[in-house]
Structure formats: C-alpha cells, structure tokens
Amino acid sequence: MRFSSRTNYLLLGLLCLIGAVILIETLYINPGRAMPLEPGIFSEKINIPLKFLNLGLWQLPLEVENFVLFQNYESLPPILQTNSTLVFGLAIWLLTAAGMVFVSTFKRVQFIVTAVIFIGLSLLAGFNGLNIGGINTPYGLLIWILGMVAPAMLIHTFLDHWQLGKRALVIIPVGLLTLPLLAYLSPVINPYLMMAENLSLLAMGFSFIFFAYIGHSAITGLFFLLVKLNKGVGIKVTWHFVTIFIIYLIALIFVYLDITGNATFGFPIVPIPFLFLLVGALGFLEVHLKTKQIEQPYPFPSIGKNFYLIGFAIAIFTYWKAAFSVNQPMHDFLRHGFIYTQIAFSTLFFAYVLANFSNLMNSGQMVHRVLFEPKLFAYIHMRLGALIGMLSLVMFADGVIGLQFGASSTNLAADYYYATNRPLEAGILFENSWDRYRNNPKAKNASAHMKLNQRQPTLAKRELEQSLEVAPTVNDIILLSSVLHRENKVLDAIFYLTKGLEIFPDNIHLSNNLALLQSRINKSEDAYALLENLSANNKIILANKIGLQVKHLIRFEEEMDPENDLIAQINSLAFHNQKGNIAPFSLRDEKEVNTPLLERALLTNQWSNQTTGTVGDDLAFIDQKLSEENAPQAEEEWRQLRVLRTLQANRINEAVEYSNGLAFGFAGSAGYYHHLTAMILAGQLDFEKAAKELQQAEEKGFRNFKPEHLAILYYGGKPDLAMRIALQYEADWPEWLNLEEETAVETQEERFFHALSRLLPATKQEVLDRIATVDDVDMRSRLAYETLWRKAHWFDTKELEGLKTLILQSPTFQQEESYISELITMLKPGEWKIPSQERLERTVDGSDLTANAYWTPLVLKAVEAEEDLMEKYNILQEAISFNRDPLLWINFVKHSRMAGLHQYGSEALSDMRGWVDDQTLEELQVKHF
User: Where are the transmembrane segments (predicted)?
Assistant: First the structure.
C-alpha cells in the first residue's frame, strides 16, 4: 500500500507539474497562439540606378525597380485548438475516473453527498446535446452517470473490502469505455470534441470546489512555517503572522479590485496563475495536517492526498483550457472564484487562528499538530462563515460570476461549431456570448472574421466599432483598420489606429501599422518617428525603418545594420542600390526561400547590387520558375528579373528582347518597358531605335520626359515628335541644343552628340572626320573611347594607337592607360584572349562574345572563331537586327552568299543603301568580296 501511494503521488504530482508548465507557457510565453497577430508582408517598388550610361554630356541612370518590403500586423481568425481540447477532455475524463476510485472508499453519507454533487455538476456538462436516441434526450447523461458512478457505487455497496488496485481495474476501464460508447451512439459531428468542450463546465465546477478547499492554504502554510521556526525559541511570532497576513490580504484586495474593474491606484498586482499554483502546492501541506487531526471520510490518509492532487490537476488543466482557447469568461470565472475564496477563507481562518492560538503561537510549542482541533471557534464554523463572506464578495461584484459561467458555456458551444465548420451557428453563439459578457475578446473577433468570410464587411465593421466603444482590444482595432485599408479608406484606418494608441499606448502592433499607413499618405517623418520610439531589438520594426528610409529618402545618412534578418537585409540592399554602393554582405546562399515574394525580392535586390553566380545558371533558374504556374504579377516580376540579370551581364541582345516581350505581354506597363528598352539602346548609342521605343512609350502612356529624352528623339531622327512632346508635356530641352533655324553655327555639344548618334552606321573615315570637328578635349576623348568599343575592327594597330592617344588626352582617362591598352589588345582583330584586366573580365563574357551586338569587334571575333558556316550566318543575322555597322552588314552579305542564301544577302545590300552611299558601298564590296 505504501509503495502504491508513493507511486500515485509521483504520477499525480508529475501530472500537476506538467499542467503547471504548459499553463505558464500558454499564458506568458506564447499567449497569442489562439488569436494570432502575425506580420504580413507586402512590397512596394522603387527605382534604383542599375548602372550609369555615359553619353559624354550626361551620366544617365539606367533605372530598374527594386523591392522594398514592409511588414504590417494582421489579426488572423482564431486558430482551432482541436488537439489541445481533445487532450484536455481526455485528461479530465481520466482524472474524473481516477477520482471515482477514491470516492468509492468514502463512508456512506460522504459517498452519497459526493455522488449527488457529481451528478448535479454533470447536469451542466451538456451530455444531452449528444442527441442519443433523439434531439436533446437524457440518454447521454444517463450513460455518463452509469459509466462513471455505477461501478463506484456497486463496489462501495457490495465489495467495500476490495483494495484500491482492484477498484481501479474496474472503475477506470469502465469509465474510459464510456467515452467511445457515447461517441458511437451519438449522431452529432465529432462527438469526442463536443464532449471535450462540455467537460469544461464540469471541470469548472470541480475547480470552484477545489478553490474553496484551498481558500486558507496560504495562511495555513504561513502558520506552519512560523510555528516551525519558533520551535524551542519562544519569540512573539504573532506580530509576524498578523503583519504578513495583512500584506497578503491587501494584495488580494487589490487583485479583487483589479478583476472587478475598480481603480488599483498603481498598486502592483500579483499574477493570479502564479498565486494559484503556489497556494495549490501549500494546500498539500494542509491536507497532510488535516488527515492527522480531523476524522476523514476515507480509511487511509494517502487517499485524501491523492484525491487532493486529482483536484489540483483538474483545476490546473481547467485554467489551461481557458487560456489556450482564449475563453475569457471562463478565465475570469476561475480568477474570480479563486480570489473570492482566498479573501473569504483566509480572513476567517486568520480570525480562527488568532482566536484559538494567539497565546500558544509564541510559546515555541508545536501547536500546528492541533491546528484543526479547537472547540472555542470550531473549524466547521469558520468554514461556514467563510462561505457567507464569499457570497458577500460575489454580491459586491454584482454576481458577475454567474454571467461568466453562462458566457463560458456559450463560448464552448461556439468553439465546437467553429471547429466543425459551421460558421453561421458559431457566429450567432459568439455574438450572444459577447452580448452577455463584454470582456470577451475572442467572441467579437471571431464573429467579425466570420462575417468577413461571409462577405458582410459592413456588419463586420459595425461589430468591431462596437467592440472599440465598449471593450476595445488590439486584435479588433488591427482588424478594423485592415478592413478599412482594403476598402481604401486610409484616413479612417489611421483614425482608429490613433484612437487605439490612446487606449494602448506604445503598443508595437498598433504603432507599426499606423506608421505604415502614415507612410502611404507621405507623412514619412511621422511614420519614422513612431517606429523610432519602439524597441530597437524588434526585427520587424528594424526592417520597416530601413524600408521607410529607402522609400522616402529620409535619414539617408543613417546606415542601420540589418543583422541576420532576411527582410531587413533585402531592404538594406535596396538602400545600398539607391546610393550606388556595393553592400557589405551578400545573400548568395538564400536563393531558395519559402515565400515566393521574398524569393523575387531577394534576387532582384541582390542582382541589382552584385551578381554571385554565373549568368547561365541564373537564367536557367528564372526559366525554371517561369515554367511553373504563376500569378500574372509574379510572372511579370520574374521576367523583369531576367531583364535585370542580362543587363548586369551586358547581354544587351537578350535584355532588349526580354524588355520588348514584357511590353507586349503586359500592356498596362508597356510604356514603362518601352522606355526601359529605349534607355538600354541609348546606352549603346543606337539613338534611332531608342527614339522609336520612346515614341511607343509615349503612345502607351509614358509621360515623364526629360531633356535627355528630347535629345535622343531629336538625334534619333524624330525631331518633330521631340518638339511636340516638349510642348505637350512641358519638358525642358537641353540647354546646349540650339533650335533656332536662323542660327547655323553648331555648338560643341551639338557636334559631339551628332557624332555619337551617327557612330554606329558610320565608316572609319566618317568617324575620324567627326572626331576632328570636336574641339573639347573631354568630348573628343569620350568619342574616341566609344569609337574603340564600336569600331575597332575598322582600324589597324597603328590607327588604334592613334585613338589611344586621343583618349588619353582627357584627364578623365589619363589614370586608365593600362586599361585602355588592354582594351585595344582585346578588341583588335585576332584570336580571342581573356583580358588580364579584372574590370574588362567582368564587363565581357568571353564565353559569349555575341551577347552585345553593338560591340561589333567582339561579334566579328566570334564569327571568325566559329567553324560552322551556318552558325556564322546566324550570328551575323542576329547582330544586324540591332547594329547598322557597314562592315558587319558586309560580312553578313558575304556569309549569306557563302551559305547559298543569296536572296538575303541581296536584301541586306539593298537595305544598306539607306545609310551608305553607293560609292562607299561599292568600295566595301570590292575590298571584302
């Protein structure tokens, strides 16, 4: 028997410990699990300079879009706690069955009283709702009572000599088998869940009785401790007892004031869960003393101790159920019940101790051994007085404990319907529960979410506004502002968030969302100030602060460390890209992330800063993503990323092709993509094609014209269009461009820009003649440098050295002599060799010299290196679709004839007459055929 008792103590004590741990975890470590406020991610786009196009007179930024990611908190629908509820139900069922084992040992009267109380509480547990044999029939309740009470009653009546082990082998299995029997007979959806929810009401009744039992356990423990410390000493510990009791009572009174909604005047409030666990642990000491001093209804002290641990475990798990299901009425019922009993029973027990032991306490004798035996103020009278005191406290609180119990029951039913996917019934029950008891955050929030799911946003907003007026919660304010934001009522959303911050000052969720909405209406400084006042250790706040910096160009001198937060790092990349700096970190190992938006944002911002892999692998990865099913926006962003990656690799042919494909595929953004293509082509000095792209951009809605656009149009063969656009959109002309017809003298800038615009289709002599017309050293050097890249194949070694001399005349290039020399070596006719200059190696992909058709010398090197005649033809055919270099075209004519495709060669010759005079064309044919 002794071994069995110790084993029971260990098992039940361990169960209480486990329950205490998960209760604390649910309440304090992870309190928002059932009603989550989760950060959602949304993106905005900013333009960053991917590279600068040097046109001599301008450094034009070639702008692409980068992502700026923001995280705003969203109130999600309450999360189903089905598994936790089933665990709770099974635990209560098992503990109840185990309790009946010990009840079966009670004396007759106590057994009958206990059975009656059990049956009475069972009436509250909703077993009739199982609808066994018909709607709301009593068969479910009868089966429950027979399964749980009948075995204990039979053993108590006929087999009272049985040991506990035998009793347990009968009562517990029968009690547990009652569970599947009820589930089998019940036609309701998920009867196990229904029983688990309804057992909460039975457990609440058990818990209230347990609270009354431990009502004075704290004072009992204090008395025991003082008497032990005073053993053989004989000091006046009565004053210690009185002082500590007064402190404890004051603490309880302020907790009582707090839970009843009265002012606490800033007095620190003791957390009730910790107090409950402490008092519950002290109660075990009280049981130990009582079993030795008071006649008990059971034969062995160990039975009382085990029975106590079962009650403690039930109370802990009931508190846990209230916490994880966010059943606030149930939680308040337990808090009120615990505090009522503590105040009433502790006060009366204090009077009981002083009346009976005030003199003996100071004697140093072990008076705790007779603590419950005095007759002057009998213990039973003390408990009766405490019950009256408890009822007085209930009345002072307007009997709210009854409303709490009723609302708890309604919430439990609503949770069941919610979990079994019956939102209409659940919504009605949640509304009813909130109407009965307003401190009920889950009920109102769940009801609003259900109305939103049922496409009733007006009713949902009305409920949330009602909540804000009567019993505001952060979740409801967040949800209301989110609904208003989705309806584009930004100012209304800001109003409610501001009002929420008045109620919940410095709340991180409200402040964060308010800051993002203020950002939307361009109150950037106010938005940043809100975030700056919040915790610097919060990763979401850090990422949003960097995002505001980038979006609004504020506090740009402050560079924040994104630490290891991925979203903050993505925003930080945009920050560095905006400044044109290389970031001090790389996200090269983060290509595979779980969120598609994060994946696209990461690659876009990273590749805008610096690439980390080979262009072939990166493009293959993008193609693989495009082969998957994507939403239109996602597909557009993947295709944008392909343009970006090819631009970074100087694969101009593909970049232009992909950009034009985007303009065709996404008509709403066609103007943007035509403009992007125009700037790419302008960077390659193909002003004629760039002008055509700008014309299409204007037709498709592009309006942000600047002086450089007008110059490109003017020198790209569309001066009339340039004049119309300048007039229509009030765009400024370049200051150096002289539009007065009577003035025949060209400025230096005009001669330079005209030479640039005619560089691609020009012959060697035309290039040299135009260079000679430019007097400005810097402009002449720039023109010679561009000539080197586009026209090196026209010049022999000596002439290339002459170009080098022209280039180095400018102070800008004088520090680049080794680079220019290496460039000449790379471009001059002959076999391709990897340049030793790292800058050139990064610029030119030696594995594909045809990637930029405007680098004609490299294209011709690729043709020379290719052995297959048709492949030579294909290379040249692609190149002439971009580049009008006469030698390039002559090579195409030559190789088309060699391949037997005379018609295409003849057509090319005919086209060349559009920009090459007959004499020059004849000379080229004589020389190269």
Answer: 9-29, 86-104, 111-133, 139-159, 168-189, 201-227, 239-259, 265-285, 306-326, 338-355, 376-397
Within a 10 A sphere around the Cβ of 847, how many other Cβ atoms? Answer: 9
DSSP code for 83: H
Same domain, 804 and 865: no
The residue from 810, 840, 870 where one domain ends is: 840
Beta bridge partners of 72: 40
Q: Is the dihedral of CA 211, 213, 214, 216 positive or negative?
A: positive
d(CA 807, CA 788): 9
Q: What pLDDT, in 10s, does the model give residues 589-642?
A: 555 677 899 999 999 999 999 998 899 999 999 999 999 999 999 999 999 999
CA–CA separation, 151 and 601 (whole Å): 67
**Does residue 18 sit within a domain?**
no
β-pair partners for 52: 61
CA distance 870 to 873: 5
**Residue 399 burial (CB count, 10 A):** 11
Question: Which of 442, 445, 481 has the alpha carbon at shortest distance from 463?
Answer: 445
Domain interval for residue 753: 746-840
Q: Would you state the structure tokens that stand for residue 386, as one six-digit string?
A: 């405490």
Tokens found for residue 69? 């990611």
CA distances, 453 to each of 82, 413, 476, 814, 825 (Å): 21, 20, 16, 69, 69
Residue 25 gets which letter from DSSP?
I
* Segment 88-99, tens digit of pLDDT: 999 999 999 999
Q: Identify the DSSP state of 28.
A: I
DSSP state of 233: T
What's the CATH number where 859 sits?
Answer: 1.25.40
Q: Specify whether 753 is located in the same domain as 834.
A: yes
Q: What is the DSSP string of 526-562?
A: HHHHHHHTS-TT-HHHHHHHHHHHHHHT-STT-----
**Distance from C-alpha of 617 to C-alpha of 392, rounded to nearest angstrom:** 78
Give, in degrees to the nearest 5, the angle at Cα 878 between 687 and 909. 80
Q: Which two tokens stand for residue 747?
A: 């400025």
Give the contacts of 791 (CB within 8 A, at least 6 positions apart).
759, 762, 764, 767, 856, 857, 885
857 & 893 share domain: yes
Token look-up 């100012």 returns 491
Residue 330 lies in a domain: no
Residues 858 and 877 in one domain: yes
Instruction: For residue 142, tell me if it sits in a domain.
Output: no
Contact 873, 901 (CB under 8 A): yes
Q: Using CA atoms, how far apart are residues 4 and 610, in angstroms rounded to an integer?
A: 71
Give CA–CA dist 442/450, Å, rounded.
12
User: Which two tokens mark 232?
Assistant: 């053989």
pLDDT beneath 50, residues of the chain: 1-3
pLDDT at 224: 81
> Does residue 857 share a domain with residue 920?
yes
pLDDT for residue 3:
38
**In sequence order, which residues have a C-beta less than 8 Å from that of residue 132 and are 6 or more positions away?**
139, 140, 143, 182, 185, 186, 187
- Confidence at residue 364, expressed as pLDDT on a 0 to 100 scale: 57
Whether residues 857 and 909 fall in one domain: yes
Domain total in the chain: 2
Helix/strand/coil for 59 = strand
- Please give the model's pTM, rounded to 2 decimal places: 0.87
Q: Where are the beta strands (DSSP E) in 634-722?
A: none
Query: The tokens of 467 are what?
Result: 């909540």
Residue 437 lies in a domain: no
Measured in degrees and rounded to the nearest 5, phi and psi for residue 78 equal -55, 135
Residues in a beta bridge with 62: 51
Assigned token pair, 199: 């057992």
DSSP string, 747-809: PHHHHHHHHHHTTTT--HHHHHHHHHH---HHHHHHHHHHHHHHHGGGS-HHHHHHHHHHHTT
Domain boundary residue, one of 815, 840, 865? 840
Based on the number of CB atoms within 10 Å of its own CB, is 825 exposed (0-12), middle (13-18) or buried (19 or more)? Answer: middle
69 pairs with which residues across the strands? Answer: 43
